[in-house]
Write a structure and sequence with these properties.
By secondary structure, the chain is an alpha/beta fold. The chain is built from 15 helices and 15 strands.
């Protein structure tokens, strides 16, 4: 029989957040083991739920949600995004510049598919949220990774970005706040990146899904608010800030110099039309959610659940022998560094497997985020402190005798 192989377009695609180690975790679950899953930033399994008004708006509009809507999204939701964008300093956005999608993930794919030809390059941070690299590759382009510097609060290395721009570079991706590091970029860092984009006529793709999950008085500067003259595609949504990841509702706004991208925008319109529209019931969550500002602040302020879990996880990860970590200023994640010589680690995926099989804790290895060295892992701090105590007690026990073979 003729055998069929996967497409070569998948050669540079990884998504270890839901990869082989998760498959092993599911096998162990079928055997009856309880697995503490710290592989995804999914709030609901940890009893972090949406505010009631958001759910009530969805429920009350179910009868209006049974058919397709405009391919860009329902007007009330796009208007709410427009007003929200204006409130955070992004100017010049019309309702027609806003596209609703089945999460930011779908819109990343659309943005890349509508832009890239074979040989085109996009600058992507390392470490990154791996969907960005995957989307570039699947769209026929090449993801060129610029380094974020752990010694400088995980800020992008501006000189490294400059070295990697060339005539094939079409755009640059900024993930701020950063998944997986938890970094929140300073205004100066963003302005330095924007100046590179300005000098090299690049499109800026700004992933800001964690913009409202901030700790310790950190300030998030929307990229588009700093560059009226550049074409900026801002991606955001409700999965994290309003704890409705399963609703799959996100948006992309186009701001700045839209005149240089009229044909590209027509391509985005074509792709959004081809998928008919995004999930209509979930779109009715947008207006209520963007008018609701207190629930996430209650979680991230001192004494709030996410704040205390972040502190507990950070304090205990740096107590582990051979571990160091930059304290995250936002998001749900720690990205600690491991002394690989101490534990003889040459394969961080094997480290994740070994931990899972020994202690039934599921983490994602750092190379799953396009970080080249096997010396990091991502820890999700969404579980309540009681579960985090189990995690770090088990980690300490595991590391006490661990040597990779």
């Amino acid at each position: 029989m003729k055998e069929f192989s996967k497409s070569t377009k998948l050669d540079n695609v990884l998504y270890d957040i839901r990869g082989p180690v998760l498959d092993e975790a599911m096998r162990l679950e079928r055997e009856g083991h309880r697995i503490i899953k710290l592989n995804t930033g999914n709030p609901a399994p940890f009893q972090l739920f949406a505010p009631d008004p958001v759910l009530e708006d969805v429920i009350s509009n179910l009868d209006r949600s049974q058919g397709y809507c405009d391919s860009k999204g329902i007007y009330s939701a796009r208007r709410a995004v427009q007003l929200y964008s204006e409130s955070i300093g992004i100017k010049g956005i019309d309702v027609e510049d806003i596209f609703l999608g089945n999460g930011v993930s779908e819109l990343i794919m659309i943005a890349m598919q509508g832009l890239l030809n074979s040989g085109d390059e996009i600058l992507v941070p390392a470490p990154d949220y791996p969907l960005w690299t995957a989307a570039v590759s699947l769209s026929g382009g090449t993801a060129v990774h610029y380094v974020c510097d752990e010694a400088s609060e995980w800020y992008p290395d501006i000189d490294d970005i400059k070295k990697k721009v060339n005539s094939r570079t079409k755009g640059i991706v900024i993930i701020n706040p950063s998944n997986p590091t938890g970094a929140v970029y300073s205004k100066q860092v963003l302005e330095d990146i924007l100046q590179i984009a300005r000098e090299n006529q690049l499109i800026v793709f700004s992933d800001e899904i964690y913009d409202r999950i901030l700790f310790d008085d950190s300030v998030h500067y929307p990229t588009a608010s700093l560059a009226d003259d550049l074409l900026v595609m801002t991606l955001n949504g409700l999965s994290k800030s309003h704890r409705i990841a399963g609703f799959r509702i996100g948006w992309m706004t186009i701001s700045g110099n839209k005149a240089v991208a009229e044909d590209y925008i027509r391509g985005i319109n074509l792709l959004t039309s081809m998928r008919m529209c995004s999930n209509v019931p979930a779109q009715y969550a947008v207006q209520a959610a963007l008018g609701e500002t207190t629930s996430i602040k209650d979680l991230t302020r001192p004494g709030g659940r996410l704040y205390e879990q972040r502190n507990y996880a950070y304090d205990h990860v740096i107590d582990l022998p051979g571990f160091s970590c930059v304290k995250p200023k936002g998001t749900f994640y720690l990205f600690p560094k491991i002394d690989i010589k101490k534990y003889n680690i040459t394969d961080d995926e094997k480290f994740a497997y070994d931990l899972l099989r020994s202690k039934h804790i599921l983490l994602v290895q750092g190379t799953g985020f396009n970080w080249k060295s096997p010396d990091h892992m991502r820890i999700v701090f969404l579980p309540p402190v009681e579960d985090l105590k189990t995690v770090f007690t088990s980690l300490a026990e595991f590391l006490d005798t661990y040597k990779q073979t």
